[in-house]
Amino acid sequence: MLKIADKTFHSRLFTGTGKFSSLDLMEEALLASESELITVALKRVDIKNNGQDDLVRYLKYPHMNLLPNTSGVRNATGAIFAAQLARQALETNWIKLEIHPDPKYLMPDPIETLKATEELAKMGFIVLPYIHADPVLCKRLEDAGTAAVMPLGSPIGSNKGLKTIDFLEIIINQSNVPVIIDAGIGSPSDAARAMEIGADAVLVNTAIAVSDNPLQMANAFRLAVEAGRMAFDAKLAKPQTHAAASSPLTSFLDE
Amino acid sequence: MSSFTDIFHSFDWTETKASIYAKTSQDVEKALFADKRTLDDFKALISPAAAPHLEQMAQISQQLTCKRFGKTIQLYIPLYLSNECNNICTYCGFSYDNPIKRKTLDPIEIMQEVAVIKAMGYDHVLLVTGEAHQTVHVAFFKKVLELIRPHFAHISMEVQPLDLAHYQELTSYGLNTVLVYQETYCQESYKKHHPKGKKSNFQYRLETPDRLGQAGIHKMGLGVLIGLEDWRTDSFFTALHLNYLEKKYWQSKYTLSFPRLRPFYGSLEPKVAINDRELVQLICAYRLFNPEVELAISTRESPNFRNHIIQLGITAMSAGSKTNPGGYAMQLESLEQFEISDERSPEQIARIIEAQGYKCIWKDWDHSLTI
Predict the structure, then answer these.
(1) What ipTM is given for this predicted complex?
(2) Which end of chain B is more exposed for a tag (fewer CB within 10 A), N or C?
(3) What pLDDT does residue A241 have?
């Protein structure tokens, strides 16, 4: 089972709440996904209403853990403030750190993210930062006390899959904290591939929310993530282009 | 510091217009199939040659919008604070030479309006005024922002262009978004339609988005008033402006509007009309050119048009709007900027949006996140 900080997860599929065409549909799809960690944009929550927010009311199932995110903030100071608000409003010290000063491509700011992680970890937050697939940054975040790292597979919302796979593999190989592939996962096969290379979990939102049938798509992702993980655990054979000859170069040694 | 003016002057209005009208069906097809569309592709998409490809444009526009924004529509409402104005604009009901009753709301009246707007469910508000420096000035805006900030998650403003220092100051008072429409990028027409007042300074207006970018504004809105000049050429310049701004002020968000001239007291007949089909073409062209930009539609448009445009590329709508100061709480009918076309209530509009399988977003920001 996956463990992040003090929580264990049966499901390795994390999800989000944006872009759904209705709250009812969102609820159905998230239930079908069996996801236990669901991210919510703080900017969309009625903070003054202390958990009585519409969106939050739809996610009140015992197996669902809310992961507030700081989407929209542009720097560490804003993120730290948002995390404190989220802790107050949603009663959780888990925070998905999203600092993207660039509202067009929503690219994460590595410098501000590292700064905020350091501060928030000191303040007792369980920090899950959304970052570029940058192996060095991941190590620096570990030193700063991050609970996991969330490198992107490709630009957020792009559905382009694992364009950063070479870097993701390095990150997975050397990480001491769980690696959650966030952003860009467009199809169940992308999610399965992420799990096969050893990711601890994936976070999928757009691909589920904007499909023609979010419920069925959530199911498909659930199965793909399970299949990918099973394959990883069973030790996937390396792909080869042709059959290997039996020691043609060194067989003379046995003669 | 360099500004858009330098780029703007490297384009000639007449030549640009001719190049749009010279686009062929082949150019349109190339634009339709491109992965990433250029300004030249945009010209093809707004050209007359694209008319037969409208359905295909609409399909792509819907897909791109859905991918970026999901099935959601944001809702906002204008709050007219004042109709006092020192400018003469030939197309506007607030024009200085228009003999209407003038009114600037006082704090009590503003809060009466806020109460009505909040009761409708709104959390995003757009403050609108004319340009009257003796009454509607930066100190006034600061007071209004202080007054209403606790009540709204997102505050936009559509007032006269201001100096950089003023924008910096207002941002610190909780201003999130500024809309400043060039009206037209055709300098000659601009002069004709703005004969008197500070607004007659074309260049100051043209450089306003630069000042907003320098002030680090959260979001800015561009657009032209459709009907003053050739809409295709004007829209090209809008796209050119947007392109420039996005690259230079990459931390700001952008939104576009495409208001059509509406009748008002003393009104002007549009020089160049745009029909519904062409307006859809324009909206889709903007979306194909820029999948990330927000596109807003106001109550200037008819109920039928608005019902159908929800799925074609727009991301924000106003509803239940009044265009006169005091219009919500005091029911004054005589002071409006223009006649609105869609008089349905926010609740009715929300039901229509939901019936089409879209979710209404009433809140997409929080003041506590602005640091």
Answers:
(1) 0.71
(2) N
(3) 66
Strand runs labelled E in A94-230: 94-97, 126-131, 150-151, 180-182, 201-204
The domains located in chain B, with CATH, are 62-364 (3.20.20.70)
B248, closest residue in chain A (CA to CA)? A102
Q: Within a 13 Å sphere around the CA of B113, how many CA atoms are in the beta-carbon half?
A: 32
Task: Give the pLDDT confidence of B44-69 residue by residue, as tens digits.
Answer: 999 999 999 999 999 999 999 999 99
pLDDT tens per residue, range A167-195: 999 999 999 999 999 988 999 999 999 99
Q: Which residue has the tokens 């100071």?
A: A77
Asked if the model's pLDDT at residue B334 lies above 60, the reply is no
For chain B, the three-class secondary structure string (H helix, E strand, C coil) is: CCCHHHHHCCCCHHHHHHHHHCCCHHHHHHHHHCCCCCHHHHHHHHCHHHHHHHHHHHHHHHHHHHHHHCCEEEEEEEEECECCCCCECCCCCCCCCCCCCCCECCHHHHHHHHHHHHHCCCCEEEEECCCCCCCCCHHHHHHHHHHHHHHCCEEEEECCCCCHHHHHHHHHCCCCEEECCCECCCHHHHHHHCCECHHHCHHHHHCHHHHHHHCCCCEEEEEECECCCCHHHHHHHHHHHHHHHHHHCCCCEEEEECCECCCCCCCCCCCCCCCHHHHHHHHHHHHHHCCCCEEEECCCCCHHHHHHHCCCCCCEEECCCCCCCCCCCCCCCCCCCCCCCCCCCHHHHHHHHHHCCCEEECCCCCHHHCC
Q: Which active-site residues of A does the annotation give?
A: 96
Q: With left for phi above 0 and alpha for psi between -120 and 50, is residue B201 left, alpha or beta?
A: beta
- Kindly tell me if the per-residue pLDDT of B219 is higher than 80: yes
Read off the pLDDT of each residue in B184-201 and give the average, rounded to a whole number. 91
Nearest by CB to A104, which of B67, B250, B364? B250
Cβ neighbours of B71 in A, within 8 Å: 19-21, 210
- Dist. CA A32–CA A15, nearest whole Å: 11
Question: Does the pLDDT value for residue A75 go beyond 70?
Answer: yes
Q: Residue B299: which of B253, B327, B260, B247 has the closest Cα?
A: B260
Interface test with A, best of B64, B310, B368 (most A CBs within 10 A): B368
Q: Answer yes or no: is pLDDT of B364 > 90.
A: no
Probe site for chain A from B311, B353, B371 (most A CB atoms < 10 A): B371
Q: Could you tell me which chain B residue has the CA closest to the CA of A43?
A: B365
Q: pLDDT tens digits, residue range B78-101?
A: 999 998 888 888 878 888 888 888
Q: Mean pLDDT in chain B? A: 92
Which of A74, A75, A81 has the CB atom closest to B368's CB atom?
Answer: A81
Q: Which residue has the higher pLDDT, B334 or A55?
A: A55
Inform me whether the C-beta atom of residue A48 falls under 8 Å from chain B C-beta atoms: no
Task: Give the closest of B292, B358, B364 to A104, CB-based.
Answer: B292
